[in-house]
Design goal:
By secondary structure, the protein is α+β, with helices and mostly antiparallel strands. The protein has a domain of 47 residues. The chain has two helices and three strands; from the N terminus they run E-H-H-E-E. The chain has a three-stranded antiparallel sheet with strand order 1-2-3, with no helix packed on it.
């Protein structure tokens, strides 16, 4: 069921959400789009070939303070999957 977000506005709270891509994310997106294209097949290739799906998601800030949704640790962040017959 689709609902309009306007129904959930709370007038007495002063909270501002900002959804955005970092400069690095914009560069990586442009590189992916130039390399693979932007049609549905290209987007499928990007998602399956990128090493870190979380790096494609928008960043969020609340009242100008950035939220950390995903950890930015230096550990191996490759998506794990297996192919089977």
């Amino acid at each position: 069921m689709i609902k309009n977000l306007v129904k959930y506005v709370c007038e007495n709270l002063n909270i501002k959400y900002k959804f955005y891509y970092s400069e690095n994310q914009l560069r990586v997106r442009a590189d992916h789009f130039n390399r693979y294209g932007t049609d549905i097949n290209a987007l499928s290739k990007i998602v399956t070939r990128v090493s870190n799906i979380e790096s494609l998601t928008r960043r969020i800030s609340v009242n100008e303070e950035e939220l950390e949704i995903f950890s930015d640790s230096d550990q191996d962040r490759f998506t794990k999957y297996a192919l089977s017959n």
